[in-house]
Every structure is written in structure tokens, then in C-alpha cells.
Amino acid sequence: MALLFESPNHNIKPPLGPRHCRIRSFSIQSNLSAFDKKKPRKQLSLSDFSKESNPKNQSNKNLNSFRNLLDTHRTFTKSLSTPCFMQFEVQSLNSSKKDNGPSIQLISTNRPQGINELIAEATNAIKLGLHPIENQGERSQVFMLKNQSNEPVAVFKTMDCTATAAREVAAYVLDHNGFSGVTPSAIVKISHPDLNKTKAVSASLQRFIPHCCDGRAMGPSQFMVGAVHHIGILDIRVLNIDRHTGNILVKKKTNVSDTIADEVYDLMPIDHELCLPEELEDPYFEWQSWRQASVPFSDYEKEYVASLDPFKDADLLRSELPQIKEAAIRILILCTTFLKKAVSAGLCLSDIGDMMTAEFDKPSMLETLCRRAAGLICIEKSIEETDDSQYEDDNDDTQFEMDIVDIPFSNNKTKVIDGLAKAISLPNTEFNYAGKKVSFMMLSEEEWLNFLERFEEILPPAFEARTNMTLKRKLGTSCKF
After folding, report:
1. pTM of the model
2. What contacts 129, CB < 8 A, 6 or more positions away?
3. CA 404/CA 97 separation, integer angstroms
4. In the beta sheet, which residues pair with residue 262?
5. DSSP letter string, 347-381
């Protein structure tokens, strides 16, 4: 076992003797009374402890002897060349003194850029105290951490489970190159007596962002178009079901051009604990009705969306955030695919948000397209089984493996197709959607990839119909005006 020698901080002057003096070796003066008073006094040197026939078997014995000597004898014959051995403690490298003070432990497989600095600053700040933030909702407690200059450096939110904190971090991990401005975030365990006196508390930790207010304090007319687009692109990818002005921070930015200089406001998104649901939930995008959402995407924004790879993003979440379930990861793949195809087809942010949002008692177009894609697969499987003419017992009911439909049916193929057409809302059918939500949790990998293939095939006609409808609305508005 390795030994670590520590000594207190002291000021020892160098020896005053000649530089070429004879150096005495370091030795330990043993006490006869501690062992056997009848035995003569013996000089024991450190080298005596290394003389053994079998080092592997004798190392523990010698180490214990060394410790006993250090504990019972405090009088040493010291060399002038080793003054630092005046006082020291022996401590195993594998043991450490337990610190019961406030601390922050990182819970993550990897450390993205900016996380090491965040953890270091937050660890120093938490020892100075916690500063609760009131009126932040009932889902979690929110605290601010400040440095010695009383400046905010980080914010953390206590969570009931690490899966909730993982969704906060997922937004940061997926925000490639800081495109949407998500602040550095990490999953941590925080030990502090004001939180829990017996155990550490799970939390999500974010770097504090200097800002002048949140989106509730001003109207959206002064927000930059690009800032709204960047947040909207992130919200669509992660299917954020809680994007409102209260979780959009506003930062004043001076826009200087050749002819005019005016004040504009940049936006920074926070609070992503309700993104990446495990079912196809109805999202809430407050930016959906803002005029900036109707402005076409810039070339830079189109290039960014085109560069997104939903399958690489899925692998990234699987490796860095195993707390996120596969059903939520498939939602990410679906929504990112939908975004890429929509932007490529020329749709604006407002159009895409409308197609993802349900209208009163009707399902969203995204949900309808999912059901249609699943229905096509059901029909194909039914036709294949009919052609093969291989059926099991006619009295046994079966159920399609894709729980996205979750409608039991018999082996009568005509009834299967008619029933699925109503269940998945194929053309010229009516169906009450106040039932089970779309989920991809129970799909096998083969079924999931097959579904995505069918889903992409039916997107172009849907986007074309949306473009025509938007054009008619614009023409109708201009005629009325």
C-alpha cells in the first residue's frame, strides 16, 4: 500500500554548516520500554523494513510495524538533509477524511465543454450559502448560488428523479455549437444541510445567464427574428410541451449598422424539464403566433437544420444520458425528421408549429401522419398474410405488434383493414381521438425503421397541402384588406 507523508506548513532555514558536510542517514530511534527492556537499544533504519525474503507476503506486516513505530516513538535522529521529516502523518492513499460540508457531485458519463468550470465555481459558491428563488412553480425547488462578490454564478433545481434532470441536460447536449443558446447544464448530487440533513439531493445545475428580464416583461415585437427561430428549432426537435415567455430570458443587445443603431433583444431558453416526452404529446409553442415565426428561415438556419442527424443525436443521448428512455429518444428522431423535411419543403416556423399542435378536438397533423404511416404497415402485413393463406386458429384474436395503433382485431382480413382505416384516420374516415396517445415504446427495431420509412414517404403531399393552404390564407387576407 502506498504511503503519503504530509507535514504542516513551516519555515525551516537551511543548515548553517559547510555545503560539503557529511550527510547522516535518516533513522528512527526506538524506545526499549515499548518492546523489551532486556534487549539492547537498536538503531532501525527505513531500509530495514524493505529487507525480506518474500515482499508480497511480508509487505502488510512491515507496514504495520512501521505504523507502530511512528505511533509510539516521537524522537527521531534526523539528517540535516531531510528537515521536512520533523513532523509528519502516515495516511493511506486509499483513505480520505470525510467532509460533511456542502458539496456537489457530478452524475454524468462524460463532461461536455463548460461543465468542469461550472462544477468548480458552483462547488465554491455553495459553501457560501443558498439563495432560494420564489414563485418558480411547484415542480421543483430553485436555488441560486453566488460567489464571494455576491454575483450569481449558477442555478440549481431539485428533482424527484434523475430522469427529469436528464431532460434539462439533454437540451444542452443537443444544442450543437450553442445554436439556440442553451446554458451549460449538468446532473448533480448536492449535499447541504438546508436541503437534506441525511442524504444528497438530485438536482439539475445550470450556469446563471445575465439578463434584463424574462419574456413576460415585454412584448415580442422587439425580439430578434433569428433568436425566435433558433429557440423554435430546438423546441420542435425535443417536442417541448412547455415553451412560454416565462422560460425565455431576454438580454439587451445593441444592433449597429451603417445607418442606424438601435436596441434589440436576444433570447435565451431555460427550463427544459418537460421536453422529450415518451408519447406524442401536444406541444405548447408560445412563439407560434409571433410575427417572427412567419418569416422564412435564413440560409444559415437552413444549413443548420440540414446538418442535423437524428440518429447521431439519439446515440449521443444513449451514451451521455442513459436516464432518458428509448421511447423519448424515438420522439426526438421523429420530430427532427419532421423538421428537416418541413424546412426542406419551404415551410416556415409557424407552419411547422401549427402542424404539430392539435386544434380543439382534432388531432395534430403530425399525429395523423403517424397513424397513417402505421396504418399502411398494418395493411401491408395483412395483405402479405392473405397472399400466403397461412392462418392460425380462427378463434384466436391477435394484435398488431406496433402499439401505436393498439387496436385488437381478428383474422378476418376485410375487417382488419376497415377497422385500422378508422383507427388511424385514413382518408374519408372519422374517428374519435380522445383515447390513447401515440407511442413508439413497444416497437422492435425493425418495426421502428419500417415505420420511419413509411412516415417519410407520406410527408411531401402533406407539406404541399400546407403550403397551398398558407398561400390561400395570405391571398384572402390581402383581398379583404
Report:
1. 0.69
2. 146
3. 54
4. 255
5. --HHHHHHHHS-BTTBPPHHHHHHHHHHHHHHHHH
User: Residue 265 pairs with which residues in a beta bridge?
Assistant: 223, 252
Task: Report the Cα 205 to chain-centroid distance in Å.
Answer: 10
Starting at the edge strand found earlier in the chain, the sheet holding 76-77 runs 43-45, 27-29, 76-77
- β-strand partners of 261: 256
d(CA 336, CA 341): 9
3-state secondary structure of 3: strand
Q: Are 109 and 322 in contact (CB under 8 A)?
A: yes
**Alpha carbon distance, N-terminus to C-terminus of the chain:** 87
Compute how many other C-beta atoms are within 10 angstroms of the C-beta atom of residue 293: 22
Longest dimension (CA), the chain: 118
Grid look-up 425528421 returns 337
- Please say whether the beta carbons of 202 and 189 come within 8 A: yes
pLDDT tens per residue across span 53-66 = 455 455 555 556 55
**Cβ proximity of 366 and 404 under 8 Å:** no
282 three-class SS: coil
Number of other CB atoms surrounding residue 291 within 10 Å? 12
In 1-64, beta strands by DSSP E: 3-6, 27-29, 43-45
* CB 30, CB 76: distance < 8 Å: no
Q: Helix, strand, or coil here: 324? A: coil
Which cell is 58 given? 511480508
Residue 240: pLDDT over 70:
yes
For the cut 50, the answer to whether the pLDDT of residue 171 exceeds it is yes
Residue 292 CA to residue 226 CA, distance in Å, equals 8
